[in-house]
């Protein structure tokens, strides 16, 4: 039986990969989806409507987070119109 120590194991070169940039978020698409869910909530069962409204709020919060992280104030965002 042969015992191999870590010092004599072959090493592989590790290349440093650049940090991946996060994907660009389409804020107008998030905004459209949130509005769509709010409109749908008016025509479905109350329990489902609550879920639709909750998801719309989550999407709006995600938009707000991306706007703030980008350095814009919410008033200067493309969706402030």
As a whole number of angstroms, the C-alpha radius of gyration is 24 Å
Overall SS class: mainly alpha
Strand content: under 5%
Number of helices: 2
Low-confidence stretches: none
Q: What is the general shape?
A: flat
Average pLDDT rating = 78
Could you give the count of β-strands?
0
CA(first)-CA(last) distance: 75 Å
Helix content: 40-55%
Question: Main β-sheet, in a few words?
Answer: none
What string gives the helices and strands in order?
HH
List the keywords.
single chain, 81 residues, mainly alpha, flat
Structural notes for this entry:
The chain is mainly alpha-helical. The protein has a domain of 56 residues. It contains two helices and no strands. Helix 1 runs antiparallel to helix 2. The mean pLDDT is 78.
Summary?
It contains two helices and no strands.
Set out the fold topology.
Layout: H1 27-41, H2 46-69
Helix pairs in contact: 1-2
């Amino acid at each position: 039986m042969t015992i191999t120590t870590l010092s004599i194991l072959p090493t592989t070169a590790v290349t440093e990969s650049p940090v991946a940039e996060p994907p660009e978020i389409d804020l107008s698409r998030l905004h459209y989806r949130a509005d769509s869910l709010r409109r749908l909530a008016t025509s479905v069962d109350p329990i489902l409507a609550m879920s639709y409204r909750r998801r719309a709020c989550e999407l709006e919060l995600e938009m707000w987070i991306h706007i703030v992280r980008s350095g814009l104030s919410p008033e200067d965002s493309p969706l402030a119109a």
